[in-house]
Amino acid sequence: MPDTHLILHVKGTEQETTSLPRQVVRAAISQGQITHSQLIWSTIDNAWKQVRELPQLLPSQKLAPAPVPRVATGTLPKVVATPQPQVAATPRVAVAKSVAAGMPVARAASGQAPMAVRAVPAKVASPNDLVVQEEHGIHPLKWLCIGVGILVLFLVGMNYLVVDRPFTSRMGTTSYSNVPVYAHLGAFMQPSVIVIHIPGSASVTESNLSDFLVALARSTPDSPFGGGGYERVALTSGWTGQYSFSGYAWKQLGGMAQDDESQRKEFILEQMVNASGEPLISGNANLSDDARQAERENVWKRFVSQFAR
Questions:
Q1: pLDDT reported for residue 261
Q2: For every residue of the chain, which 3-state class applies, written as one string?
Q3: Beta strands 190-197 and 182-186, pairing class
Q4: Sequence ranges of the domains in the chain
Q5: How remote is the C-alpha of 144 from its chain's centroid?
Q6: Which residues of the chain have pLDDT under 70?
Q7: Which tens digits make up the pLDDT trace of 123-139?
Q8: Which among 218, 219, 195, 216 is positioned nearest to 204, based on CA atoms?
Q9: 71, 234, 268, 278 from 272: Cα distances, Å
Q10: Cβ atoms < 10 Å from Cβ of 164
């Protein structure tokens, strides 16, 4: 019997044995098709051994070259070649399954090793049979993400070229060129709204805020889509508009360069609304003059705190 084949005994029967390639037996053991209590003939010990007693067949062990058999004290098992029907080769250990399920077995003569019936060896799956084929092409969701990314880049580039660049360029010619400001269309695509971002700056104070806003209004470019000015102008120190003016009031503010600070301050308080479009001054007629003045001062201080640092 070649070292590349093993003789298996079917548990519970004593009539026949079967011969399988060593690789097929190892594969069947690793897949659980042959249990660790299965008996296999050991030519070294000249006796039946359970799988658990043959560590070279267990999955955790690398397949080592067959050991050189010692001289057996008994008669070696004889393999009887029995014609078998041709079975199509398959990557699975088909023959090993039949062993685990049970086969007719012939009783060996007393004092002799068992005689094995040769089985058709099953084809062992090679690494090439297990290659996973990856589908080529791009998923529609990827195309959608690519399209959205291109649209965002286009909108950012358009806003920079037609809104932000002319705005910051004009602000650079004023006395507030060191104050970081930038602008874009409302929601990056609303031509009737412009949003001006004013991060807090130490160059903006309560005493010069109104003058700074006049410089902003004078530097604001017209709508790139025609029609002159904008319907709304939003101011913010963050990402969303916190205060806004009508386009008409914003233009008026830009023409107040010659007015004093108190006149500009009063105009801003009267024309400015919050993000919801509600006036910041309540206009409650029941308030006394002192209460009304205190309300205006509180609104102005909150407004200044957003942009002055």
A1: 92
A2: CCCCEEEEECCCCCCCEEEEEHHHHHHHHHCCCCCCCCEEEECCCCEEEEHHHCHHHCCCCCCCCCCCCCCCCCCCCCEECCCCCCCCCCCCCHHHHHHHHCCCCCCCCCCCCCCEEECCCCCCCCHHHHCCCCCCCCCHHHHHHHHHHHHHHHHHHHHHHHHHHHHHHHHCCCCCCCCCCEEEEECCCEEEEEEEECCCECCCCCCCHHHHHHHHHHHCCCCCCCCCCCCEEEEECCCCCCEEEEHHHHHHHHCCCCCCHHHHHHHHHHHCEECCCCECCCCCCCCCHHHHHHHHHHHHHHHHHHHEC
A3: antiparallel
A4: 5-126, 141-307
A5: 16
A6: 1-3, 11-16, 60-137
A7: 444 444 433 344 556 78
A8: 216
A9: 107, 10, 6, 9
A10: 21
Is the CB of residue 253 less than 8 Å from the CB of residue 265? no
Torsion of CA 250, 232, 242, 292, to 10 degrees: 50
Cα separations in angstroms, 54 against 102, 115, 136, 198, 280: 21, 21, 46, 79, 89
Burial of 97 (0-12, 13-18, 19+ CB in 10 A): middle
CB 11 within 8 A of CB 37: yes
Structure confidence at residue 104 (pLDDT): 41
pLDDT at 9: 80
How many residues are recorded in the chain? 309
What's the chain's average pLDDT? 77
Helix axes 247-254, 261-271, angle to 10 degrees: 180
**Per-residue exposure over 272-299, b if at least 16 CB sit within 10 Å of its own CB, e if not:** bbeeeeeebeeeeeeeeeeebeebbeeb
Among left, alpha and beta (phi > 0; psi -120 to 50; other), residue 228 is: left
